[in-house]
Design a protein that fits this description.
The protein is an alpha+beta fold. The protein has a 6-stranded antiparallel sheet. The chain is elongated. It has a domain of about 110 residues: Yope Regulator, Chain: A, CATH 3.30.1460.10. The chain has 4 helices and 6 strands; from the N terminus they run αββββαββαα.
Length: about 170
């Protein structure tokens, strides 16, 4: 039976310090967790790559799209990615999931818990931020999609969740 790497165990430890429930996946350097964000439930996967001293964090939430809305949501994600410095949005076509992925390379086998926490916060916040934009796009009638200005949509601030400390408790 394969044991877990030191790297994924440091991720589990960082989750514990934050009070986040998680489960290690048997036989793999993978940890799973779930969070209630402002707009959606976020499933989170953390995977260590010991050979590289790398950690990948993936947050995802289901969103089924029909064939008329799929290309427009893909364009929305591409436009949102242009605004990002770290990480990126994806759409898992096979599973109908909106995805945000962020990766970091570490210098040592023990991953820094503050960086792990920042990566988790980023993955949850970014996915939660894109959900309302994607939902507006998905809910736009197909005959009006041609009139939907995705750049303007991404500038709307009335649909994004408040920042922690802006009169609202952090939910994760």
């Amino acid at each position: 039976m394969r044991t877990h790497s030191r790297q994924i165990l440091t991720v589990e430890e960082a989750f514990g310090r934050n009070g986040w429930h998680c489960e290690l996946v048997e036989g793999r350097d993978v940890l799973r967790a779930g969070f209630e964000a402002h707009h959606t439930r976020v499933d989170l996967i953390a995977q260590a790559y010991p050979q590289l001293n790398a950690l990948g964090i993936v947050s995802e939430s289901p969103m089924e799209l029909d064939e008329e809305h799929l290309p427009v949501v893909l364009e929305l994600l591409a436009r949102a990615n242009k605004q990002l410095t770290l990480g990126g949005f994806e759409y898992d076509l096979d599973r109908g999931m909106l995805v945000f992925r962020i990766t970091n390379l570490f210098e040592r086998e023990r991953f820094d818990p503050d960086i792990i926490s920042s990566m988790v916060h980023c993955a949850i916040a970014e996915l939660d931020r894109i959900i309302p934009y994607a939902a507006i796009t998905r809910d736009t009638p197909a005959d009006l999609l041609v009139d939907l200005d995705l750049q303007r949509l991404l500038q709307r601030e009335d649909v994004i969740p408040p920042l922690p400390g802006d009169d609202e408790e952090e939910e994760y």
